[in-house]
Amino acid sequence: MITTTPERFALREVFTIARGSRDAAEVLRVTLARGGAQGHGECVPYARYGETMASVAAQIAGLPAKVDRATLQALLPAGAARNAVDCALWDLDAKTAGKRAWELAGLPAPAPVITAFTLSLDSPDAMEAAARRHAHRPLLKIKLGTPDDMPRLEAVRRGAPDARIIVDANEGWSAEVYSELAPHLLRLGVDMVEQPLPAGADDMLAEIARPLPVCADESCHDRASLPALRGKYDMVNIKLDKTGGLTEALALRDAARAEGYRVMVGCMVGTSLAMAPAVLVAQGAEIVDLDGPLLLAEDRAAPLQYDDAGVHAPDAALWG
């Protein structure tokens, strides 16, 4: 039996990107029950990709009750619905086998990985204050994507002079704006810029200078995305809600590396249940951004552990 449950988890503070603001994580939990065992998965339907809670729940409701991971890949497209079901199947299979999910995948036990901490889009003064509060963190991710981002960049660097910084423009810049900002990103020690131009309108990245690594987020969903990225991007951001689950995420990671891309593993704003499978994908990634639970005011029982070593592998009571 497959059941879906919409859930809401309050955030510690309002989270803003170029496309809007939110004060809670709206997630859909999937539960698969078979033979006395239950598997759980979570997704975050994303309006940017035409998803809603209702549309994703309807996709899942149309699945056969005895779906497995292999057949699921053909039954649903890459996206939030397939992600939640795929991860629930991994969890169920692990419980049924009495093993951990990484053992089923033929992977070593995950080690802790350092994750970015995201500063949401705000005024320069507010972003500088946030940077000061989190200056102890080794890696900060800045949400930008407006024509007036230079003061924000300067403010964050003042607030966190020693932190590594990556920038996410969320498709908010033009080629001209990016070209103007790129030298300043280098001057301020930014390690990488994520999705500076809109997906589908990013061909100019192959024509203009890329003085620092450019990462594809909205432009990269699954392995089928890779051919269109050639010559435009240096890195891909793998998110399970885009790939449609752990199964495709692991395959995308291997395919991207084989084609010479560096790997980032990211997330939507979700709970520890959504992050847990991504910890497996994050092993060996150049950049990890699995900070969703750190932005929440409340989380799952048996949540992921975050400490100075990074985010740890999930407890079996949570997932896998």
Report on the biggest sheet: 8 strands, parallel
Q: What would the principal axes of the Cα set say about the shape?
A: globular
Q: Briefly note the structural class of the backbone.
A: alpha/beta
Please state the oligomeric state of the protein chains shown.
single chain
**Cα gyration radius (Å):** 19 Å
How much of the sequence lies in strands comes to 15-25%
Q: Biggest sheet, strands in spatial order?
A: 4-5-6-7-8-9-10-11
Could you state the order of secondary-structure elements as H and E?
EEEHHHHEHEHEHEEEHHEHEEE
Number of helices: 10
Distance between the termini: 19 Å
Helix percent reads: 25-40%
Estimate the mean pLDDT confidence.
95
DSSP strand tally: 13
The poorly predicted ranges are: none
Structural notes for this entry:
It contains 10 helices and 13 strands. The relative contact order is 0.15. The strands form 3 sheets. It has an 8-stranded parallel beta sheet. The chain has a 3-stranded antiparallel beta sheet with strand order 1-2-3. The model has no long low-confidence stretch (mean pLDDT 95). β12 (306-307) and β13 form a beta hairpin. α1 (53-61) crosses α3. The protein is α/β, with parallel strands linked by helices and 320 residues long. Helix content is 31%, strand content 23%.
